[in-house]
């Protein structure tokens, strides 16, 4: 059985051997140097009626410190120009509730987001469903609470059963370790509570211990692949590795155990995976250069209909000429495809700590 990892026997390219996709352009969508809010993290991006909607969370201090709110912009010309910032939820001056992160998606022609409400670091309260208003994009409506305090870093995916599936994770709570899971909607009525399916028993004696088990999914028919960030943990007899891979053959209801480990040098950071319109799988990740070294962001691809990755490209590395030499760390990607172009959003953190939301635009047929 072929596993959704780098193809066995094929050497993984050294970073010096990787090229950038031909035709790729890169731009700054939200410039942190021009913003009063210093902390930006965890971009989300989706396509809706020809518009690109980009979101992120800001904090007035550091991560989930001070006030944390969800903000965004939209573009009607493929990312060349962006609207003024709109506010999804949260307000400056409120230190008792934090909203982080957001996952934009489109359902039945309307724009929604999954957003976690938190009371502080690791104090997740609930995972809520928000809907964009019909007129102004400011102040989205909280439709319902769909689950307990899970975090969602990637948008839900509609399966051919008519259910959505979302990769989520629970932060450390007292004696209960952090762990990944999936949530499955009750059909197309997405405002009802979503069912939880565990990838493994987090309380089992040999269960992997991961500090931030951020998760991204790939769905093809009944087969679901879950890539889970590894914080140098262990799973049974497996030593620590780049990232964990779980598979399901029944739409996420049950999962393979023990987990597999990728043979790709995936660094300690959030990944994002999906399937292109031509049938190729892709995964976006930080190439491992040491613990929390996030200065090289890459994309790997399979052949159409295959599960093993055979090709890898650079997306961002060190400084970028299009940004007047600005650079540093590039991390926490999210992506969507629109009209044959893959749009990849991520966080840029400069050496002085300023954070911006940046975009890479890649014609799908150029990779």
From TrEMBL:
InterPro entries: Sialidase (IPR011040), Sialidase_sf (IPR036278)
Top-level taxon of origin: Bacteria
Sequence ranges assigned to domain Sialidase in this UniProt record: 155-319
Name recorded for this polypeptide: Sialidase domain-containing protein
Organism: Paenibacillus rhizosphaerae
């Amino acid at each position: 059985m072929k596993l959704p990892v780098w193809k066995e026997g094929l050497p993984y390219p050294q970073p010096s051997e990787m090229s950038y996709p031909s035709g790729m352009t890169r731009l700054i969508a939200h410039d942190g140097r021009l913003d009063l809010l210093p902390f930006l993290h965890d971009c989300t991006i989706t396509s809706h009626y020809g518009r690109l909607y980009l979101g992120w969370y800001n904090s007035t201090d550091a991560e989930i410190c001070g006030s944390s709110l969800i903000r965004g912009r939209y573009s009607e010309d493929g990312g060349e120009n962006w609207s003024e910032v709109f506010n999804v939820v949260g307000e400056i001056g409120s230190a008792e509730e934090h909203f982080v992160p957001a996952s934009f998606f489109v359902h039945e022609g309307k724009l929604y987001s999954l957003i976690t409400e938190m009371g502080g670091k690791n104090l997740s309260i609930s995972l809520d469903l928000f809907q964009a208003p019909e007129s102004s994009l400011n102040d989205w409506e909280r439709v319902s609470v769909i689950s307990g305090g899970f975090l969602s870093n990637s948008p839900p995916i509609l399966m051919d059963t008519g259910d959505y599936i979302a990769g989520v994770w629970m932060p450390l709570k007292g004696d209960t370790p952090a762990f990944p899971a999936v949530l499955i909607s009750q059909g197309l009525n997405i405002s009802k509570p979503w069912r939880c399916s565990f990838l493994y028993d987090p309380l089992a004696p040999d269960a992997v211990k991961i500090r931030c088990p951020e998760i991204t999914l790939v769905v093809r028919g009944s087969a679901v692949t879950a890539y889970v960030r590894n914080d140098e943990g262990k799973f049974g007899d497996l030593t620590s590795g780049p990232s964990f891979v779980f598979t399901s053959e029944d739409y996420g209801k049950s999962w393979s155990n023990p987990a597999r480990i990728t043979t790709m040098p995936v660094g300690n950071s959030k990944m994002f995976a999906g399937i292109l319109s031509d049938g190729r799988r892709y995964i976006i990740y930080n190439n491992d250069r040491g613990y929390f070294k996030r200065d090289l962001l890459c994309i790997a691809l399979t052949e159409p209909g295959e599960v093993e990755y055979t090709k890898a490209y650079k997306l961002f590395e060190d400084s970028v000429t299009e940004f007047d030499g600005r650079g540093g760390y590039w991390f926490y990607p999210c992506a969507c495809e629109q009209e044959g172009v893959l749009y990849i959003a991520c966080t840029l953190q400069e050496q002085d700590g300023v954070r911006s939301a940046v975009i890479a635009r890649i014609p799908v047929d150029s990779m």
